[in-house]
Amino acid sequence: MPLLSAQNIAWSPPDSDALLFADVDFDVDAGERVVLEGPSGSGKSTLLRCLVGLEPRRSGTVRWRGEPVDAESMRRFRNRATYVQQRPSAISETVGENLAFAREMARQFAGDRALDEDGQHDLLERLGLGHIGMSRRFDDLSVGEQQRVCLVRALTGQPDMLLLDEPTSALDPERVEQIEDLLIAYVDDAPDRRAFVWVSHQPDQIERISTRVLDVSQWTQERR
Predict the structure, then answer these.
(1) 196 vs 8: CA distance, rounded Å
(2) Which contiguous run of DSSP H or E holds residue 64?
(3) CB within 10 Å: which end of the chain, N or C, has fewer?
(4) 210 touches 204 (CB < 8 A)
(5) pLDDT above 70 for 223
(6) Tens digit of pLDDT for each residue in 105-142?
(7) Cα dist from 8 to 11, 27, 60, 142, whole Å
(8) Phi first, then psi: what are they for 182, rounded to 5°?
(9) CATH superfamily of the domain spanning 4-219
(10) Distance CA 90, CA 26 (A)
């Protein structure tokens, strides 16, 4: 059974009846590292947001482990399929508060699987953020630092699936490689229950990280 299924997904902008994409159908199995690619404006990021209910779909169904994701089950779904947006956002004021909030939430649904404070700090070290003080304001970090803090926040709950919207877009090549290696290993360490869907437009990166590539333009509708 697939971890995630997208069935007949269609979307249009709120002020238009013209569909950007339609008839989106694909499954993601455990162990897969799926990349969404396509030209600018084809709807890669929007499709990812549709999967987690952050954009209202015109039609279609998202299934998690065979069960439809609806309003009642959306919170549980988001806890197991964690979305990481391209533009980082703070939950609270400081780095430490952001990570503490992530631990508190993760304990509610992941229990002993959730990372503790030491586990979070190990990840920060691996991502080159060991020097960041917990009292630092999140908004004072560079965008690249914010992206990495948000990734640690997302991994705190040890989700089964990561939905990643260009998570390395603001990073230098060394940091890009660190994150790629980390996330590939994250899936490969538990291939019976983990996967990711990663939006990227960089051919070299796509080749490095993917086991399967989906071109979103196959579902893009002709705009009139």
Answers:
(1) 20
(2) strand 59-64
(3) C
(4) no
(5) no
(6) 999 988 889 999 999 999 999 999 999 999 999 999 99
(7) 10, 12, 5, 39
(8) -60, -45
(9) P-loop containing nucleotide triphosphate hydrolases (3.40.50.300)
(10) 32
CA distances from 121 to 103, 147, 153, 158 (A): 12, 15, 11, 15
- Residue-wise pLDDT for 149-206, tens only, equals 999 999 999 999 999 999 999 899 999 999 999 999 999 999 999 999 999 999 999 9
DSSP structure class, residue 127? T
In angstroms, the CA 143 to CA 146 distance is: 5
The DSSP annotation for 6-63 comes to: EEEEEE--TT--S-SEEEEEEEE-TT-EEEEE-STTSSHHHHHHHHTTSS--SEEEEE
Q: Name the nearest CA neighbour of 124 among 141, 105, 111.
A: 141
Q: Using CA atoms, how far apart are residues 165 and 37, in angstroms rounded to an integer?
A: 11
Question: What pTM was computed for the model?
Answer: 0.94
Interacting residues of 104 by C-beta distance below 8 A, sequence separation 6+: none
Compute the residue count for the chain.
Answer: 224
Helix (H) / strand (E) element for 206: namely helix 203-209
* List of residues 6+ apart from 16 with CB closer than 8 A: none
CB count in 10 Å sphere of residue 191 = 13
Residue 224: pLDDT band by 50, 70, 90 thresholds? Answer: very low
Determine the pLDDT at residue 213: 98
- Cβ atoms of 123 and 185 within 8 Å: the answer is no
